[in-house]
Specification:
The protein is built from 16 helices and 16 strands. The protein is of the alpha/beta class and 381 residues long.
Length: 381
């Protein structure tokens, strides 16, 4: 396979099994990406990620550009060497973080101005500057600068976010030149199906114009602006049609979604890639995913429970530690408790997507989906 080639190995209904080539290896979908915002997945080493068979790790342009600075990461040899992770990596543009700071953000056709959360200094990003920063950081996949609309928001606000995101996508694609890195466009449009489909149409038009002029195309399509406060059922009213409107010869990446059942449902709609802080964030709160549904390890019923965290899980945490011990660590606020639960939760999602891929390859995804939805594991909210 050539760099950034995408091969569809099988389909099962709308679910897909892809292989995607990067400079740091091939990843396979459906897949979940652990979030390493500041070039670290909280509480988990790069070696542990490899042992868990993690494929792509996500880092964040906003945070890395402010601390330690993109120039420092570049001087270290890029984000892979900086954090000692030798697999494929992706950098979010930082757009979600910028627009979550709504009170300090100023938008213009030229770009976005915001205040650093670290020292309050004013920073201005044009799409071109954002691309320069992501090329310095050096992940295999960069994301365009976009505006993520909150929920709820007026239709006029969401439509304007589509306008900004589309205009910036064109400039990002024109500015992005690093040959060992690809760029994903991002679909916006809130919960409005027509705006979503218009966003996809514009992205496809932008890359056609680029190709006609001898430029590049997007390496994949991110689907942003979901899971921003709306009910999950609201997202699924439009997600499938939006995903399937994206090109079928490249990955479709649902950004910021990591609930197990949501992943299973979204794969069924044609989504290939996911990321979320949920597995590690909930771990730090003492919560675990499991085949019996979500577990709160602070619960007193686990105090003398000397069985594995999840008897059907083969992760290092479940092989070596009991519910009683993990509960003890959590109640004592020992950092090891959060680490062990983070390892387990990441394994749970990574393995879930591995099994989803096997179901697609066997053309049995609908059976896999039905079995999951009828299982106790689906009680994960």
């Amino acid at each position: 396979m050539a760099l950034f080639d995408c091969t569809c190995e099988a389909t099962s209904g709308h679910a897909r099994a892809l292989s995607y080539e990067t400079a740091h290896g091939t990843f396979q979908t459906p897949m979940f990406m652990p979030v390493g915002t500041s070039a670290t997945v909280k509480g988990v080493t790069a070696g542990q990620l490899r042992d868990l068979n993690s494929q792509v790790v996500l880092a964040n342009t906003y945070h890395l550009s402010l601390r330690p600075g993109a120039d420092v990461v570049a001087e270290a040899g890029g984000v892979h060497r900086f954090m000692n992770y030798d697999g494929p990596m992706l950098t979010d543009s930082g757009g979600f973080q910028v627009f979550s700071l709504a009170d300090t953000v100023k938008l213009s056709d030229d770009g976005v101005t915001f205040q650093s959360i670290y020292d309050g200094s004013k920073i201005h990003w044009t799409p071109e500057e954002n691309m320069r920063i992501q090329e310095l950081i050096g992940a295999d996949i960069a994301m365009q600068l976009d505006q993520c609309a909150p929920y709820p928001a007026t239709r006029e606000f969401v439509a304007r976010a589509v306008d900004y995101s589309s205009a910036w996508a064109r400039r990002c694609l024109a500015a992005h030149t690093r040959p060992d890195q690809t760029l994903f466009g991002i679909v916006q449009g809130g919960m409005h199906l027509d705006l979503r489909l218009e966003s996809v149409r514009r992205l496809r038009e932008i890359e056609e114009e680029s190709l006609t002029a001898g430029g590049r195309r997007f390496g994949g399509y991110g689907i942003g602006g979901y899971s921003v406060g709306e009910d999950h059922e609201v997202m699924f009213e439009t997600l499938g049609e939006v995903a399937r409107a994206c090109p079928d010869d490249r990955p479709r990446y649902l950004m910021g979604v990591g609930n197990p059942t949501t992943l299973v449902r979204a794969v069924r709609e044609g989504v290939d890639m996911f990321d979320c802080v949920l597995p590690t964030r909930t771990a730090r709160m003492g919560t675990a995913f499991s085949s019996a549904g979500r577990m709160n390890l602070r619960n007193a019923k686990y105090a003398r429970d000397f069985t594995p965290l999840d008897p059907v899980c083969d992760c290092p945490t479940c092989r070596n530690h009991t519910r009683a011990y993990i509960r003890h660590l959590v109640k004592q606020n020992e950092m090891l408790g959060a680490i062990l639960l983070s390892v387990h939760n990441l394994h749970f999602l990574l393995d879930l997507m591995r099994r989803a891929r096997e179901a697609v390859l066997a053309d049995a995804y609908e059976e896999f989906f039905e079995q999951w939805m009828e299982s106790d594991a689906a009680a994960d909210y």
